[in-house]
Amino acid sequence: MFVLKKTTTSMPIHSPAFPDPFVPYESPDYVSLYAIVEIDEHEVKRILAPTEFDYVNNYAVISITDFSNCNKIPYMDCAIVIPVQFEGKYGGYYIYEYENNDAAIAAGRELWGYPKKYADITLNKNNGIYTGYAKKNDKVFLEIEGAKTSNNTTQLEEFTVTPHLNIRTILDPSGGKPIRQIIERDTSPDFVLKEEISLDIKLNIQSTQFEPLKRLNPKVLGGGVIKGDFYATEENGWGEIISES
Known about the structure:
By secondary structure, the protein is mostly beta strands. The chain is built from 2 helices and 14 strands, in the order E-H-E-E-E-E-H-E-E-E-E-E-E-E-E-E. The protein has a single domain, classed as Acetoacetate decarboxylase-like.
């Protein structure tokens, strides 16, 4: 249920786009199906060229995550995150992200700069096989399938995607220079891990009308499924502006 405050900053003020305050919130029994992949190095550098971030390597985490038990906004998430460095700090930069709830999209973009767009997203388990997909206009553009394996999840040195390092751009309404903010956010200290299972991963990725995802040309290195309780607490659920220009 949305909480309307007289001092709300979520637009429109008379009917806010997302609950205010948004933090704290929680999503018990969170499930995330993920693939660890190697992607095209030239494409990573092309993506990073207009940003303030430095290249680290050409690995990425591609995930489909079930936040449907979230107490503020039930939603599903699909994300592609790469490791980056900013002024000596390592973290994860969301290069593409999709969700199926307008309120969750608005909150993530307006508060912390996550590049969220809308997609239909599903994550299921049938006969021991996890299947997740994201689609637009009834066309699947990203699909992950995971079946049990005896192999261990791939571990890579210097491969971290927390804290999240996002770029929030605030446009000038008169067409002048926008404000660019680097926002750091890390909810991982509050996550309660219940289970992590290594899986044999199959991945299918296609470009959309506006995102050239296929240019990533991902090669699956490993992956699995994570189950736990997600918390965005007052201490760690908010973000911090660490640079502005």
